[in-house]
Amino acid sequence: MEIKVQTIHFEAGEKLQDYIQKRVSKLNRFCDEIKKAEVSLKVVKPETAMNKEVALRLAVPGSELYAQKVADTFEEGVDQCCDMLTRQLEKYKDKKNR
Length: 98
What we know:
Blueprint lengths: L1 E7 L5 H12 L10 E8 L8 E9 L2 E9 L2 H24 L1
Parallel strand pairs: 1-2
Antiparallel strand pairs: 2-3, 3-4
Helix pairs in contact: 1-2
């Protein structure tokens, strides 16, 4: 699976990028047909809490799965998006196996 990280209005550090790579690659356990993952990180309003927006898009055969969350930290947002996509991948596999 190819994982692409895009940042808007800031530069992501090596530690954050490693965390994203590790966390998103775990989604392969639920569906090994994932072709590509695109992670978009954006700082919405720097002066407020809950200002980190994470959008995660997975390309699977015949479909595209998407999750978006706003959180206090990018790590928290990535975790929430991965949890949402885990449920979506389970539904995708159920539909495919019918």
